[in-house]
Design brief:
single chain, 310 residues, mainly beta, 14-stranded antiparallel beta barrel, two-stranded antiparallel sheet, 54% strand, globular, disordered N terminus, disordered C terminus
Length: 310
């Protein structure tokens, strides 16, 4: 009897956690090192560095929990024709529990000069979201139940999003909506088809010159979803000798983290972050790991006046 009670408790706990995980899957993927892959959340960023840039990012969330979110992102973009226009591609693979979503978008931006050292860029993105759900990889309550065993294969929904991105040599600010189209998805908690909600992103960052070899670079990102609490991510990084980055991050009422990065060459940057849950969930997981690799193909005559996130 004691063994049976332990098993029941285990499955009850896993069911609660997977419910939370699946609810997460219906939100846009989240990142701790968003400042190194801004194109993933704002199409206005497209082409803004002034040269070809490509980024790879991987996030493993809540290590130790079966079915926890795992996200991979790839972005590549560059100015085209003039420094006012940018063109890029973004692809995201987001897996949680029995669900897997793939986002593929083309990105375009057009920037106007707001002064000698500042620009305001308007961005558009369009593409598709592909959803697959394999119930055999999740927990179901009754063998053969058609509601919980009918897989969803390659359910394709269009996406259209937009963003504005203002930037100078020292700071940036932006607002974006990943998609204006509310897609339908199957919710195994409600056992019904429900509609996704619009997401709004607000981002900002600044570069403070502390000394010749030390810069302080705080950043913030807010995510607003109707009917859900506002999510706020903050980070504070120090750039040492334009080579090593060390910092901390905090996601309100969710997690605290540490970040580290290294400028391997003039063209290649590698970053790592570790998040620790500050909620009761920390009893059941070993934290969240995220790595990012960024490549920038700069013309030889290009010289960045001030190291920055953007």
């Amino acid at each position: 009897m004691k063994k049976i009670t332990i098993i029941l408790r285990k499955y009850f706990l896993v069911s609660i956690i997977l419910t939370a995980l699946y609810c997460h899957a219906q939100q846009e993927p989240q990142y701790t090192q968003y400042m190194y892959n801004t194109l993933a959340i704002n199409p206005g960023y497209t082409g803004s560095p002034g040269f070809l840039e490509g980024t790879l990012q991987h996030r493993s969330q809540w290590i130790g929990i079966d079915g926890a979110p795992q996200t991979q992102a790839l972005t590549i973009h560059s100015p085209i024709f003039t420094d006012r226009m940018g063109l890029g591609l973004s692809a995201v693979n987001d897996r949680v529990g029995p669900a897997n979503e793939v986002y593929i978008d083309g990105n375009f931006s057009y920037a106007i000069s707001m002064g000698e050292e500042s620009k305001l860029a308007f961005g558009l993105k369009a593409g598709a979201r592909i959803m697959n759900i394999d119930w055999s990889k999740g927990i179901y309550y009754q063998e053969g139940d058609p509601l919980l065993n009918t897989n969803i294969n390659n359910n394709i929904s269009p996406t259209i999003g937009a963003g504005m991105y203002y930037y100078t040599e020292k700071w940036y600010a932006g607002v974006s909506v990943p998609s204006f189209i509310r897609s339908d998805y199957y919710d195994d908690v409600q056992e019904a088809v429900v509609s996704d909600r619009l997401h709004y992103y607000l981002i900002g960052g600044y570069v403070f010159d502390i000394s010749e070899g030390l810069k302080f670079k705080p950043a913030v990102m807010g995510k607003i979803v109707s009917g859900a609490p506002i999510t706020v991510d903050t980070s504070a990084n120090f750039l040492i000798q334009e080579k090593v980055t060390l910092g901390v991050s905090y996601r309100y009422d969710d997690s605290a983290g540490a970040l580290a990065g290294f400028q391997i060459t003039d063209n290649i940057f590698a970053g790592y972050s570790f998040d620790y849950s500050v909620t009761d969930l920390n009893k059941y997981n070993n934290g969240t790991h995220e790595i990012v690799l960024r490549f920038q193909l700069m013309p030889k005559e290009t010289r960045i006046k001030s190291p920055r996130f953007f």
